[in-house]
Automatic annotation (TrEMBL):
<dbReference type="Pfam" id="PF11452">
    <property type="entry name" value="DUF3000"/>
</dbReference>
<protein>
    <submittedName>
        <fullName>DUF3000 domain-containing protein</fullName>
    </submittedName>
</protein>
<dbReference type="InterPro" id="IPR021555">
    <property type="entry name" value="DUF3000"/>
</dbReference>
Length: 208
């Protein structure tokens, strides 16, 4: 049986140098210890070259938030991206009932994404996405479960390319982790930064 990791290595060796450099930067990034991150199988049809990571924000035995970040690369460029790279993300966390009822919550969560990128001085373009609130109520055999609410951010943006056509993917990953930590209710990594307000800590997402 073929070794899937060997196939991944072969595919990476055949990829263009800018994409390989962008992936190497993602792999080498140092992140805050509460965020557990691992490579995962990327979608195959979104771009000629793809790489994906999945992450969980952990506090003790609790999962406070989770997410997925996908790097796309099309050497020929993409009209909708206005570039040859694109970052696509999904971030999810459970909410306290009071937060879920806030009518401004979607706008606030979207501002956290753009603010996380801006806080690290990152240049990007063509941002787009959705913020979704969902609530679950349980009945019958599940009636003893408490109702819960969840926030979900789906977004994508084009990282500006630097020397050699390579975007600063490590910094984009760090800003994405800032967003994950913020939606999980963790305090900001930089001490004394009172400009960032996080969601209160809560129970983590239920098992998928």
């Amino acid at each position: 049986m073929d070794d899937p990791k060997e196939g991944e290595r072969d595919a990476m060796e055949a990829a263009p140098l800018p994409f390989r450099a962008a992936v190497d930067a993602l792999r080498a990034a140092r992140l805050r210890p509460q965020i557990e991150i691992d490579p995962t199988k990327p979608p195959q049809r979104l771009a000629p070259f793809t790489y994906a990571l999945e992450a969980t924000v952990v506090d003790g035995d609790e999962d406070l938030a989770d997410g997925r970040l996908v790097l796309l690369h099309d050497p020929a460029g993409h009209d909708a991206w206005q570039g040859s790279f694109r970052l696509v993300t999904l971030v999810r966390a459970e909410l306290e009932a009071e937060m879920a009822a806030d009518p401004l919550l979607p706008e606030v969560c979207w501002s956290w994404l753009t603010g996380a990128l801006q806080a690290r001085g990152l240049s990007y373009g063509e941002p787009s996405g959705t913020v979704t609130r969902a609530g679950s109520h349980y009945f019958g055999g599940l009636a003893d479960r408490p109702a819960n609410s969840q926030i979900e951010i789906r977004a994508s943006w084009t990282p500006r390319e630097g020397l050699g056509g390579v975007p600063d993917t490590a910094s984009h990953l760090a800003s994405w982790c800032d967003l994950l930590a913020q939606i999980a209710g963790l305090p900001p990594a930089a001490p004394g930064d009172a400009s960032i307000v996080s969601l209160p800590q809560r129970r983590g997402p239920q098992s998928r």
